[in-house]
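TODO from last week: model Mechanosensitive ion channel family protein.
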Amino acid sequence: MSVLIVRSLVFGIALLLAGPAQAQAPATVPPERVKQLFELLDDPSVKAWVSEQRNRDAGSTGAPAEPGASPAHASSDSVAAPGQMNTMASSTLDRIRHHIERIVQTLPLLPGQFAQVRAKTMEDMSSKGSAGVFLLIAMFIAAGLALTWATYKFTRPFRLWIIAQPKDTPIGRAKKIGGRLLYSSLLIVSFALGSAGAFMLFDWPMLIREIVLTFLMAAVVTWGVRMYVIATLVPSFMKVENAVEVRALPVTNEAADHWSYWLPRIFGVFAFFGAAFILLPGLGIDRDGMTVLSLGADFVLLLLFLLAVWRRPRTQRDGAHNAGVTWLLTAYFVVLFLQRIAGLYILFWFTFAAFFLPLTIVLTQRGVNFVLRPGSEDVGRPTIPAVTIAVIDRGIRMILILAAAYFLARVWGLDMQSMQDGDTTTMFILRGLINVMVIALAADFGWSIIKALIERKLGIETPHAVIGDEDVPTLDPQQARLRTLLPIIQNILLAVIIVMAVLMMLASVGIQIGPLIAGAGVVGVAVGFGAQTIVKDVISGVFFLLDDAFRVGEYISSGRYVGTVESFSLRSVKLRHHRGPLFTIPFGELGAVQNQSRDWVTDKFNITVGYDTDIDFARKLIKRIGLELAEDPEFKHWVIEPIKMQGVQEFGEYGIVLRVKVTTRPGGAFGMKGKFYVRLRQVFKEQGIELPLPTVQVQGPQNPHAAENAPSEIGPELKIAVAHTNRRRKKAGTTE
């Protein structure tokens, strides 16, 4: 990299000092005031103002304005001559043609202007000599590199601290990247102090001082870009373990190596040309000469961008996609170059921002999400709060967009003071668009923070069983309450932010929002009368929520509807039946709600024993089984009061009915009751307690011989029984 910097500096000084062997005689330079007048008339903002004044005068007199007195406007003025159509397209074409003509006319004059540059520089360099100047510049760069090396050696503990930061946690990755950027800043400052500081120790002629300092600053910029790119992308030549995980962007090793190679070179060439263009006007190169030279610089940068695009690493899986992207990027950079040739500088910067601003925003978002991603499972997956990530992401995005808007406004020749003082339609529209953009960014920033906070609550504090002080699983009521209300609050806040942002945007472009608000109120009243059912549902839902009648995850019943609450809207609730169907019930139709998931539930059921059973002994057995189930690890967290017998319910048809009761937390009695039945049957069988079943006894003659001697006649009782049986069979057949 130092070779590249030295080569760029030497080439830049040589370009400034070089002159053709047989330079043409310099053209006659017009007086200074006349030259300033021509430059002022060539200014686009002055042209636009003159055109507007002419159009205004022509509109007031009813006659076309006369051609301007300025030669610069003869071919590029937006006001057409009489009999010609005055359109924006024709005016743009005239400006492009005039710009190209100026470039062609300036080319023969460049050798003479370079001769003047050479004469001025050689006059100040005569005491030192060109070879001595180049040697001193090389020495200054070497001094900067030496101080950088010394800084590298003395900051070894800081490098070890950066290496020791964990890569498996978001905080550790952020510290690694921040430490590398800070360390790069130290090396950049060391190089600047070593090179420019050493130069300042000597007494130089003013012109040589300005030239060398300017190119040294370009070298510092190039060095700084290289250091920051390396700190961000961590190319493979740095020999960093697991470099993919500690980069600031999710890129492969091949992509990191590629862009670490090309980006510093592109910015280095750009910085070299920028330093040259800062110096050349003061050395005698006029504005047209600078325009011609800028085209050569643009062509070199175009070649560098195309080389970087075409040589970037490609994957076989996305080969066709990468080829299409490559051709699109090529066409984009060629269009930028053609806009520079045509002199459409405002359009050039807008086209430049239309691609690089979204690209920067996307890369920033990916970088923030990649660096602050959750940690690995080995360290417990530590995370950064979503609201912090949203603030960083949206904050950077807002800064980038506002900076781009300010830059484009400056390119257009606008500032907020002139836009406030100006009363033209263009200024009014531009001021309104800028205000709209600022309001939209502020609304997006606020909404992103609110959404991140709500999603954090919904994602972390979900309603689930937690273990309390007594190892009892409970459904945290605060969590369930938040999960019930936060989605509704989120929708309400989104609607409020959108309405407020739209009203502020309309007010910023000059629209009176007072009548709109009044009209919206009238329309709202009319809609309220026409949609009374919807209004009833919404108001009923508000009161249900205020009363805390149910929450998400609770099992409720209302009339013929029963199920688990899944979600809410402003006017309805969704219930999931235990068999699967999902009910969507408007709040106005709910009525009385029975909540079966609050605090505790008591389940009562019956057990029938034989009439000869010892009731007191059966009670003790039931109590013992209840205590055993209460200590069972499967059910102990649910039991509030164990299963016990309340007493005799009634004398049934087949036995004595015993009443049994159990109190548990919601959802815990069903499984325990099934296991209680199994255990009860086993214990009663072991203790000889009968669980009676309904039976039918058929009794015949006691003597078998009597059956043979029995009369063959059918008695009336048997006839009635047979008739009754036939009727039952006939009824059963009809039912089937």
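Done. Residues 76 and 92 are 8 Å apart (CA to CA).
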